[in-house]
Every structure is written in C-alpha cells, then in structure tokens.
Specification:
Layout (H helix, E strand, L loop, with lengths): L2 H20 L2 E7 L4 E4 L1 H6 L11 H5 L4 H17 L2 E9 L5 E12 L5 E10 L1 H16 L3 E5 L5 E4 L1 H7 L11 H4 L7 H12 L3 E7 L5 E10 L2 E8 L1 H16 L4 H16 L3 H16 L3 E7 L5 E7 L3 H7 L1 E3 L5 H8 L3 E3 L2 H7 L4 H7 L3 E9 L2 E10 L7 H40 L4 H16 L3 H16 L3 E7 L5 E6 L7 H4 L1 E3 L5 H8 L3 E3 L2 H7 L4 H7 L3 E8 L4 E9 L7 H45 L9 E8 L9 E8 L5 E8 L4 H21 L3 H14 L6 E9 L2 H6 L2 E8 L5 E3 L5 E3 L20 E5 L4 E5 L11 H17 L5 H12 L7 E8 L19 H6 L8
Antiparallel strand pairs: 1-2, 1-5, 3-4, 4-5, 6-7, 6-10, 8-9, 9-10, 11-12, 11-16, 12-13, 14-15, 15-16, 17-18, 17-22, 18-19, 20-21, 21-22, 23-32, 24-25, 25-26, 26-27, 27-30, 28-29, 28-31, 31-32
Helix pairs in contact: 1-24, 5-23, 9-16, 10-11, 10-16, 11-16, 16-17, 16-23, 17-18, 24-25, 27-28
C-alpha cells in the first residue's frame, strides 16, 4: 500500500472514530476462538471499567452487568456466535458510586470462507435517559383513566395498565407475554385488526371506534400509535356514550316529523344539567314525558347500596301507589324493579301483557289506574344505576321511534344521576365529619373549624394542598403536634409520605419508603389497617426500629387511619401527639371522619388528574424536547441566524422536527433542518441521535453537504438507528470572486425535505428546488446525493422550515408553499422588518392550533462592506472553535 493510500485510510479511520465519539458510541471486537475482547475507551467508560482493570476478557464486562441482566446478556452473545447472526441487548451496568447505567448494545458476527464465526463486532451506547423517560411514562400510564396496552413487533403484549385491565376484564398477569391475537381473538378480521396493521404498516396514528363482542361486550374508542418496533393502543370504554349517541341518532332520524319531541329532548338535556337532586331529575323527565306521551305517572327505581331492596321516587301516582311503591324487595315482580335489578327493558302495551309477564302486581296496577307501562335501564360508565319507568291509563303500543326516544331520555337521566351521586359522595363525607364532631359535643369553635376544614378540603387542588389544610386546621382541632399523608404508590411496593413542617427533622427518612418499613403509618397505608398507639414504648414494641423516627419528630402517641376511596385504598392519614394518651371511641370516630373527608377529596383529585395526566406528561416531554433543540445558533461576521420551534396543538404528538446551525472545522457556516418520521417519544429520541451524529460528521469531515448527508445515512444504518427522516444541509461559502462581487455562495443538499425558500432584499421569493429530488435518509445508505448552488446577494434571506408550517388538513401542500412564499416576501419588505419579525410573523399567521410541530431557521446575508447591523446583535462563535481548528491535521479535516 502506498504512503498516500495509508495516510488516506488512517484519516478515514480517524474521522470515523471522531464521529462515533461525537455520538457517544463505544465499539468492541470479540475474537474467536480465543474469546479475546478489544474495546475502545468509550466502551470501557460505558462498562464502568478502566484500562487498568480491563484484562481483555468478556468476563470483565460481565462482572459489572447487573446480576438480574447478566444471564440474558451472556445467552444473547452465545446465541449470536452459535448462529452466526446478530446480537442485540439492553442491560444495566452497576456503577461503583451506586445506581445503574442503561446500555444498548448491537453486534454482527463475522465468518471466514468456510462459514465459521471468527469474530463479533459491534457498538454500544448510553440509553439511561430514555429508560428513565419510559419509567416516568409508565407511572403516568398507571394513573390514567384511559386504557393503555402495548405490543412488540411480533404482536406479543408487553404492557397493560390498570385501566386496560378493567376494560379487558382480565389481570395483566394473564395478558402480558401472550400473543395479542390469542388474548383478543374477536379482533381477527375486524376493524381492530385492519386498523392496527395499517398503523404499523404506515407508521402513522390510526383512531377509530369499534365494538368488541362477548365476553367484553363493549364499545371502545381506540388510538393506535406506532411505538418503536411495536404498537401502543390507547382505548376508552365509550359504551354508555355510544348507546346514548346511537339512541339519539335513531330517535332523530325516525322522529323527524315530531319537532315537539326533538325540541323537548334538547330542553330535557339542558334542564337535567341544572338538576341538583334525584327529585329534580324525576321532575324534569316526568314533565317532558307528560308532554310527549301523555303518561299517567313515572318513577325512578334505584337499588339500595346492599342490593336487597329497591327504592322508588314516583310522580303523578296516587298516595296509595306512592306508599306501596316507596321501597320493594329486589326480587319483587314489578317491571320497574326487575329492570332496575337486571337491566332488561320492558315495553308492555296493555294490562293483559302486564299480568301475563309480571303476575302478582295486579293490586298496584289497579290502585294506580295503570293499563300499560314501560321500564328502561339507567346506565352510566358501564354501571347499572336503576330504571326509569312510565305508566299509562290507557293501552299504549310502543313504536321503535318511541322506544329509541325513551332510551335517549334514560341515557340523559343516568348521566345526571351519576353526576349528582359523585357530588353527594363528597358532600356526605363532609357531613359525616361534621356529625362526628357534633357527636363528640365539641365546642362551637371546634364545630366551625371542622366545617372550615371540610370547605377547605373541597377547594384543595393538589395532595400538598390537602396536607396544608390538615396541617393548618386539622392539627389545631385535634391538638396534635403534626400530621402526614402516607400514600401508596400504584404498584403497592412503596409509600410516599407528605408531612407537616413540624416533622421536618424526619422528612427525608420517611419521604419514600418500602411498604414494609417499620412505622405504624406505613403499615396502615399499605394494608388499610387502623392503628392507634398510646405511647412510644408500645410503638417500639409493635414496630421495632421506629423509636428513632418518633424521637426525631417529637411524637409519643400516634394514630394511623386508612384512606378508603370509592374504588381503592389511597393510604392513610397519620396524626402525632407530643404526649402519651388513651384513645377514646369519640376521638377515633373523629379521625375516621377526617379520613373519610380526605379520601373523598383524593377521589375528586384523582378524577380530575386522570383526565389531565397524559396531556401533562406529554406536554412536559414536548417542552423538554423543545429546550434541548433551542440551542443558540452562531452569529459569524455579517451572517445573522434566527431560529424558532413551536410544538403542535396536541401535546401528545411529540415529533422529530429539528434545526441546527454551527461552524465546521473549515470555518464554513452550516445550516440544518430535518424531520424524523413519527410523532412519539421514539421519534424524539431518534431525532436527538441523528442531530448529534450529523453535527459530529459535518464538523470533522470537512466536506460539502451531499457528502455529509451520505455519511450520516451510512452511519445511521451501521449504528442501527432504524428510521426514515428528511433533511436539508446547507453551507455558506465565500471565495475571492464572490468577495469581490459582494456576494456569497449557498451550497446545499436536500434529502427528501421541503425546498429552502430564498427571498431577495427586494422581496422576490423563489424555492431552491432541483429538477430531481434525492432520497430521504434511512431508505438506501448507498444512494448518490448531489450538491446544488445559489448566489446570495447582499440582504438576501434563506428560510429553512418543516412541514408543520405549510401543511393543513384538507389543503394541498402546493397551496401552503404558495402562501409561505407570498407571506415571507411581504414580511421581508415590510418597513422596519427584522429577521426576528419574519419568523415571529410567520408563526403568528399560522396561529396557535398547529396540526404538526414547526421548526424554522432563517439566515440573512448582510452586506459585508457595511457595519454589522444592530438588529443582528454581536458576532458570536463558539469559544473553542479556533483551538479546534488549530489542532486539526494539516493534511485533512479536524
């Protein structure tokens, strides 16, 4: 090999090593058959090793792999070697200072001419932040009221949250690890399967409503979102809503000629929205039913809590009927009772049908003058609340239109009753707390304090706010020296504690502890057991190891009362006292009332937070992504660069849009705009990898944009970054001829992205679009890429952008591009307009309801024979640029 060829090869290797280093990637080679391992410094760092501790054997790396992961890692390596295949693994490295680092490794075996495996070569990189993001996302998923289920590339279920368990009517232990098609066989050949496979095939989100038959028998609203190599399914039980909508739609279609009925239904919906009691609800629907059908009477039949009897609220019947109808056993044959218990509707046209199907009710029919009746179930959120029944003094045959209208009445009635029930539950808790205080014959001041606590808890909007109320008012009322909220985490394995400032000395020790931590409050929170302890001695005897915490908090006696919500155990309310005491039954009742009041407030907060949790989490992800992308661009000589990033209106759709601007090792200003396919956390993570990889390649390679994009395409393929992306890379060049003419040269290469927009100082706008476009990134790393040139006259502006700026639903992209060219030209020539005004003006024109993220990068070439304008700000380049360029080899790029 010639000296020149050897130098070229060494240079390319150095460039490749620098690119890998810039991307944070470590490399290795495992030689066979001797199992000798060669690694670079980055892989040593990732594996918590040094050159002094590394002996060149795989066992050195395995020694630092987390004990729970090492068997899987070794098995995957051996499988790759045995099959001459690929190696893929994610594992934890135990760090000397404590904690773990998540590492993703990829490898490919090499074979000789006889097919014998000779080596395993590959790379590894740090994915800790991605795993932590996934962990935070999992915490959010478990608190969502929306079902979430994920599958991998082979349709194996990998995750099921609590809400999904309820809809699927199966525990996650029966679902995770199974084939999705086996777990949900009724999806085969239906809209479910077609939509899921379309989402995977196209890489786009697919939303739809569909019905899953028995045994689930449920309508669901589904959002199928491609996620990595698999699919994430978000679904919500909309059976009640669907039934109500179907009934309303059917009634509207079949009753078009009945304007009175339609108008009455709207009025009923409005009136029920203002109803505050069950009696109000009955009055609204009875008034409407009299107008529409001329009924003789109506009733709401509602099973009691134990289900042994059914109470009824009746209207328009005689006093004798009302007295008989007030409360009946759950097995009574009256149609209204049967429907309230079974959920089966009844439409009985005459007395003969009544007595034939429901014998034993003749006396009630006769007393009420009833000749026919109908009863329909009341359901809300999938729960049977009771029935709504109508009675007629004459025979009445029910048409399909009337039955549909009655079902619509029932759906609206059920929603109103469910709302009133939820409100009454919290009010009842407050009344119980007040009753407990009154039963204890507390002073008027204590009673007033209790009422104030109930009102303050009703206004609290966070768990910390609940604690503030209890600490400010409840501690004084109970004459305690402090209190705390001990809340079970979703998995039940840990308890998080919020305590008043009076216990600040021990806050760190109990802030988050395992469920078996030796404290009464933790035991109560984990098990739901109420614990009352009179002094520190008995506490230590029952909970060895608790004395130090009690001493630090200055507590002698304590009480821990469980917080039982409507559907779950939240944890416990813990109260401490500086002196020993004996707990009276009245004091225990008061604490139970406080706990009930607090649990109801937690239920209310959970109901609100469940609706906001997913959006809040994804909004945080979007905000974090935005901050990571908003790096300040350089401001070299007379070039001014302005950047903007605006997230889509839907916070859940975090995308892969990005921009970048930097100065390369040969002093050229480089501009980048790009968009990774997808709108999820995976797309955002891949975007970050591509952005950093492109920076490293462009800075060190010192080549035109086409070669930079080609190198990026090859590096992404070689590193296993499996994605499709579009991008434009541009460089600003000035040679002697352009400097003499006062112009600059824009050299760019486009990988399937929207074309750059060039606007002259006079406002002439044109797109820089070649006759034939190059392929997107990630499609074929061997594709040829081309550079293009354009002359930048003084005052010219170049605008790079992503598709969110010009694409709208139902509008062709050509329309959007035409709008952008005109709008940008108008803004450029507007009196006093600056480059910042151009970017802000474009974003203002598209408004706040974006369908997709928008990334903008604008460059203005100010005249070089004039001072740099004040609007452009001072010249700004990286401090280390000169040192980096000085350290570059004389015969090649940095």
């Amino acid at each position: 090999m010639s000296s020149e060829a050897a130098t070229g090869q060494q240079t390319r290797q150095a460039l490749w090593d620098l690119s890998l280093s810039a991307a944070g990637v470590g490399t290795y080679v495992l030689h066979l058959p001797g199992q000798d391992l060669d690694v670079d410094d980055r892989l040593l760092e990732l594996s918590a090793l040094t050159r002094d501790t590394f002996t060149g054997r795989p066992e050195d790396v395995y020694a630092n792999v987390h004990p729970d992961d090492v068997a899987d890692v070794v098995a995957r390596v051996q499988h790759a070697l045995a099959t001459a295949g690929t190696y893929r693994a994610q594992y934890r490295i135990s760090l000397p200072e404590g904690g773990v680092r998540w590492v993703a490794a990829r490898g490919q075996t090499l074979t000789d001419g006889h097919g014998t495996t000779t080596a395993l070569v590959g790379a590894a990189f740090d994915v800790t932040e991605l795993h932590e993001a996934h962990a935070r996302t999992a915490t959010v998923l478990e608190t969502m009221a929306i079902g979430y289920l994920s599958v991998d590339a082979h349709w194996v279920i990998t995750y099921v949250n609590a809400a999904a368990e309820q809809v699927a009517q199966a525990p996650r232990s029966d679902l995770v690890g199974r084939s999705f098609w086996e777990a949900f066989p009724a999806t085969a050949g239906t809209e479910f399967e077609r939509s899921y496979r379309r989402a995977v095939a196209t890489g786009t989100t697919v939303s739809f409503d569909a019905f899953y038959p028995e045994p689930l028998d449920v309508w669901v609203e589904v959002r199928a979102v491609p996620e990595g190599d698999g699919l994430a399914l978000y679904f919500l039980d909309i059976t009640a809503r669907h039934d109500a909508e179907q009934a309303l739609d059917a009634a509207a279609v079949r009753q078009r000629e009945s304007a009175q009925a339609q108008s009455e239904l709207v009025q009923v919906a409005r009136a029920l929205g203002e109803a505050s009691t069950e009696t109000d609800v009955l009055g609204v629907v009875t008034h409407a039913a009299v107008k529409i059908w001329g009924i003789h009477g109506s009733a709401l039949s509602l099973p009691d809590a134990g289900g042994a009897s059914v109470r009824s609220l009746s209207a328009s019947y005689t006093d004798q009927v009302l007295a008989t109808f007030d409360s009946l056993p759950a097995d009574h044959p009256l149609p209204a009772v049967r429907t309230a218990v079974t959920g089966v509707p009844h439409h009985l046209p005459d007395l003969a049908a009544l007595t034939a199907q429901f014998p034993g009710c003749e006396d009630i029919y006769a007393a009420g003058g009833i000749q026919s009746s109908a009863a329909v179930p009341l359901r809300a959120r999938g729960v049977l609340l009771g029935s709504f029944s109508l009675g007629f003094a004459e025979p009445h045959t029910w048409t399909e239109e009337e039955q549909d209208l009655l079902v619509a009445f029932a759906a609206l009635t059920a929603q109103a009753l469910d709302r009133i029930s939820a409100r009454d539950a919290e009010r009842d808790a407050a009344l119980q707390a007040l009753a407990a205080a009154q039963a204890e014959r507390v002073s008027a001041q204590r009673q007033a304090t209790l009422v104030a606590i109930a009102q303050a808890l009703a206004d609290a909007d966070t768990q910390e706010a609940l604690l503030d109320v209890l600490g400010a008012k409840g501690v004084a009322l109970l004459e305690a020296n402090g209190c705390g909220l001990c809340l079970r985490e979703p998995d039940g394995a840990h308890v998080t504690t919020f305590i008043t400032d009076s216990y600040a000395e021990v806050r760190h020790a109990v802030q988050r502890v395992p469920a078996d931590f030796p404290l009464p409050a933790i035991r109560s929170a984990a098990t739901g057991q109420a614990i009352y302890l009179p002094d520190r001695e008995q506490t230590e005897a029952a909970f060895p190891g608790s004395a130090a915490v009690y001493a630090g908090a200055g507590v002698q006696a304590s009480a821990a009362v469980p917080l039982h919500g409507r559907t779950q155990l939240w944890g416990c309310l813990s109260v401490g006292f500086a002196r020993a005491r004996t707990w009276t039954e009245q004091e225990r009742e008061l604490l139970r009332a406080f706990a009930a009041l607090t649990a109801q407030a937690l239920d209310r907060l959970a109901a609100h937070d469940a609706e906001q949790a997913a959006l809040a989490e994804t909004a945080s992800i979007a905000e974090t992504l935005q901050r990571s992308m908003l790096t300040a661009p350089p401001e070299p000589d007379h070039l001014q660069i302005v950047v903007r990033y605006t997230a889509a209106a839907k916070a859940a759709e975090v995308g892969g849009d990005w921009y970048d601007a930097f100065i390369t090792s040969d002093g050229l200003t480089s501009l980048v705009i790009g968009d990774v396919t997808g709108h999820d956390m995976g797309a955002a993570a891949v975007m970050g990898q591509l952005r950093n990889l492109l920076r490293g390649i462009a800075f060190t390679l010192g080549e035109p944009p086409a070669k930079v994009l080609a190198a990026l395409d090859r590096a992404a393929a070689g590193l296993g970054i499996d994605t499709v992306a579009t991008a434009v890379v541009a460089q600003i060049e000035v040679d002697a001829a352009h400097r003499a003419a006062g112009t600059r040269l824009l050299r760019w290469s486009n990988a399937g992205h929207l074309p750059p927009l060039l606007i002259t100082a006079e406002g002439a706008a044109s797109y820089l679009q070649p006759d034939e476009a190059d392929l997107v990134l990630g499609w074929d790393p061997a594709t040829d890429r081309r550079d293009h040139e354009a002359v930048l006259a003084p005052g010219s502006t170049v605008l790079l952008y992503t598709d969110g700026l010009v694409e709208r639903r139902g509008v062709g992209v050509d329309v959007g591009l035409a709008w952008l060219a005109q709008a940008a030209a108008d803004l450029v020539v507007a009196p006093g307009s600056t480059l910042d005004d151009l970017c802000d003006g474009l974003l203002a024109l598209v408004g706040g309801h974006l369908d997709d993220d928008v990334a903008l990068l604008a460059l203005r070439a100010h005249p070089e024979d004039e001072p740099r304008p004040a609007e452009a700000g001072p010249v700004r380049v990286p401090e280390g640029l000169d040192a980096a360029r000085a350290a570059a080899p004389s015969d090649g790029p940095l």
